[in-house]
Amino acid sequence: MTTHGGFEPVFCTIVPPHVLDRLAQAEDPALAGPARRTLQRDAFERTRRRLTTVLGAAAVPSAAGGRPRRTIHDARHGTDLPGQRVRGEGDEPGGDATVNRAYAGLGATFELFLNAYRRDSIDGDGLPLDATVHYDRDYNNAFWNGEQMVFGDGDGEIFLDFTLPVDVIGHELAHGVTQYTANLTYFGQPGALNESLSDVFGALIKQYTLGQTAAEADWLIGAGLLAPRVTGTALRSMKAPGTAYDDDVLGKDPQPATMDDFVRTGRDNGGVHINSGIPNHAFYLAATALGGHAWERAGQIWYDVLTGGELKQQALFADFAALTVAAARARYGEGEELDAVSKAWERVGVRTP
Q: How far apart are CA 232 and CA 159, in angstroms?
């Protein structure tokens, strides 16, 4: 496993800790029990990831260039990773819809990065893509642990199967792209940028898969993941941060859309899943101002910054914004791309040169 001198080991979940904390306090044991077990399992996996970072992971051979090499494993509701191999690259679909969705989602992610940005897998060098499904029982999360994807089935009360939204799969694999490039520190504003970049590319993977333009897209992260009893549409909204859910059990979506409402907290690694709403909204504004397919121009600018070598591990929002302005100018000149990016950051309250 390649690392780039980061300060934090990579363990990134799609459901923020503040959501699980709220669920863990529910009076209904059917809601609180799975949330508490998920928090405990996440803490264990986070520790295991830290040890792997210290001790080093086994080298993984690269795949043939330009083609994915996917392997799906089944944990059979256990926690030993990776579990039993159930589908490999080129195998026909089986009867397990979760396995098939995971396989397709890995492929959709590979295709977006290859076709839009000429990136060969998440490391740029044909890294095999591994995933484990049916992890634990009633596990309310999905995560990237620095080496592979892992999906829970959800508890059926609050969360459904975590392979249902393709942007969840794309989001977690995009953490791998960040790991192999800028390796943003997973705390505070750099951590929120880390989360935002995964939301950005997760949304682009979904839009690419559906053939949607920026105007046609819903700009929701995790749509279809919440169970019917939940009052909400998704985990996050890039179009309108803070509106994804407002539920008696989950509470209200706490994401801010602008720096005026930036949240200062010591929880969730300094609010990485909360303040990511600000750069998320900036991307949405830039992409919709430009129109067309968001992965083509807005996405290209964000990708240029992520992989260009100038984004520091501890970059703040203003640092990232300045680099997007420079990237827009370098690639497209003094045109509408530069104007759209500059105005997007201005609207969310982040100053650019």
A: 11
Tokens read off for 189: 């504003």
- Residue 352, classed as helix, strand or coil, is coil
Do residues 301 and 341 touch, judged by C-beta distance below 8 A? yes
Tokens standing for residue 224? 């279809």
Set 172, 195, 293, 337: catalytic member: 172
Residue of 73, 175, 273, 293 with catalytic role: 273
- The secondary structure of 326-337 as a DSSP string is HHHHHHH-SSHH
CA angle 242, 243, 246 (to 5 degrees): 105
Q: What is the arithmetic mean of pLDDT over 86-102?
A: 97
Residue 155: name the closest of 13, 332, 294, 24 by CA.
24
As a whole number, mean pLDDT of residues 293-321 equals 98
Give yes or no for residue 340 having a pLDDT over 50. yes
Average pLDDT over residues 272-276: 97
Contacts of 57 (CB under 8 A, 6+ apart): 1, 146, 147
Pairing of β 251-252 and β 70-74:
unpaired
pTM: 0.94
Q: Are 1 and 209 in contact (CB under 8 A)?
A: no
| pLDDT of the residue at 9 | 47
Q: Is 172 a catalytic residue?
A: yes
Annotated catalytic residue 273: yes
